[in-house]
Specification:
The chain has 85 residues and is mainly α. It contains 7 helices and no strands.
């Protein structure tokens, strides 16, 4: 939505605390769909529908949760490594 409103990818990355490559990844889907900055208005509901279509792993947290039990098995190791720097 920020990009569609005319903000640059660099501005978006800085304001949201994201890497520019991450912003490019998400904007690329809109560009491939023919959406251009300043184009016809797109409602929040339509953006949400597009995001679910383009990036189901982002829109549906349940798709990410399947890895949590696997990660949990390594919790002590991860905590130890974080403490060790």
């Amino acid at each position: 939505m920020h990009w569609h409103a005319g903000r640059s990818k660099n501005e978006i990355a800085a304001s949201l605390g994201l890497a520019r490559n991450t912003v490019r990844k998400y904007v690329a889907a809109a560009e491939e769909a023919g959406i251009v900055p300043g184009g016809a208005a797109i409602s929040s509901a339509e953006w949400a529908a597009r995001v679910r279509e383009w990036f189901p792993e982002v829109a549906d947290g349940r798709l990410r949760q399947v890895t949590w039990p696997t990660i949990e098995q390594h919790r002590d190791y991860i905590v130890g490594q974080l403490k060790a720097g």
